[in-house]
Sequence to fold (316 residues):
Amino acid sequence: MKLSVSGRAATAAVVAVATVLTGGSLAGAAPASGPSVLAAPDIPLANVKAHLNQFQSIATANGGNRAHGRTGYRASLDYVKAKLDAAGFTTTIQQFTSSGQIGYNLIADWPGGDPEQVVVAGAHLDSVTSGPGINDNATGSAAVLETALAVSRAGLTPTKHLRFAWWGAEELGLVGSRYYVNSLTAANRARIDGYLNFDMIGSSNPGYFVYDDDPVIEQTFKNYFTGLGVPTEIETEGDGRSDHASFKNVGIPVGGLFTGASRLKTTAQAAKWGGTAGRAFDSCYHSSCDTTAAVNDTALDRNSDAVAYAIWELSD
Ligand code: DTR
Ligand code: CA
Ligand code: ZN
Ligand code: ZN
Fold:
């Protein structure tokens, strides 16, 4: 296990939990002594939703989707890249071919940190052809983007090197992420301490699922939700059905979050999380109704904050 939660991170965790418990802002919450530790920021839901609205507009202007090989995919990538470039990231577009069409991954490195210890957070940016792909997966794409922008706003100087990624052609079978992993040298693969995946984090009838993979990553997410008082369950709807599998298959520790797809919410799950039993977590999964109207704001907000929390903790 290569990821660890250091003393610095543990101090930050105490600050973060205290902030959650008091409901207060971070102002004045810094420790009285010791190194200057800053807790992960509260990711503004409005900023994440603004990205969703942009992805929705891009789909609407490009035939109703943001799928691999379609103009809405490249427009989505250009939107994310422009935000990252303006925020000081070093961005790279990686091109590949799948089903006879050109696809792209976008990689954004935050300058600094130990190049021998790299933490990667990613989300697939493509939709299916049948709809705009807002819960699947503008939500993960927007949360990773807004976390990257928060890193920039904070001027974060993490111990580890931070990398953010948006994958192409996930819907064709994890094509972009597999291409990325296969293109890494053995040495560069070994430098990746962990990969965090976010695919569907604003389902309309949400569950709070944490991937049961690397124990340190899993515990980091669980700690965040425990601080919120929100129970979680292990993700079981499709182990290996998203881009983390590309990393896991070559031995890289992985983790992630998920609010559910086409599986039905049980009575017990509705009792603990609210919502509707006997109904799909996302009844618009892979449909034309996967629009901004079908996103649960509370789930999106909690999960976006969890992304930032994990990035702050695991890069410390
Ligand atoms: N791969 C997703 C949907 C999906 C189904 N099960 C899981 C589990 C964990 C993450 C994602 C998923 C899609 O893009 O369609
Ligand atoms: Ca928030
Ligand atoms: Zn999908
Ligand atoms: Zn997806």
